[in-house]
Write a structure and sequence with these properties.
Shape: globular
Distance between the termini: 18 Å
Oligomer: single chain
Largest sheet: none
Number of strands: 0
Number of helices: 4
């Protein structure tokens, strides 16, 4: 996010630093507002039983749980590659979300 009109009072938050937390929060608390099934959201949020292996950067095979981290990574790659450049969207986030990240 860029500061507009020289406004130094607002902190700059990089999307890459908060996308996982934002997606987790959305799936946990607002799935009904997005018309997503509870089971779908639960599966995305399910924790991996065995954390001894880390395949987070691997794109081969079955991705490890929690799947929402893989989804956040894929969304970030789409945004970084500007594949969504032709899509017009706005992101409205209220202050309490950012205070929870601390």
């Amino acid at each position: 996010m860029e500061k507009k009109n020289g406004d130094d009072s607002s902190p700059v938050v990089k999307l890459s630093d908060c996308l996982e937390e934002l997606l987790n929060f959305t799936l946990n608390y607002h799935s009904n507002l997005l018309n997503l099934q509870t089971q779908f959201c639960s599966t995305l949020l399910k924790q991996q039983e065995n954390d001894s292996f880390s395949y987070f950067d691997s794109l081969e095979g079955v991705p490890p749980y929690p799947l929402y981290k893989r989804l956040a990574s894929a969304l970030l790659k789409c945004i970084d590659s500007q594949i969504l450049k032709s899509v017009s969207f706005e992101l409205h986030v209220q202050e309490p979300f950012f205070t929870q990240l601390k």
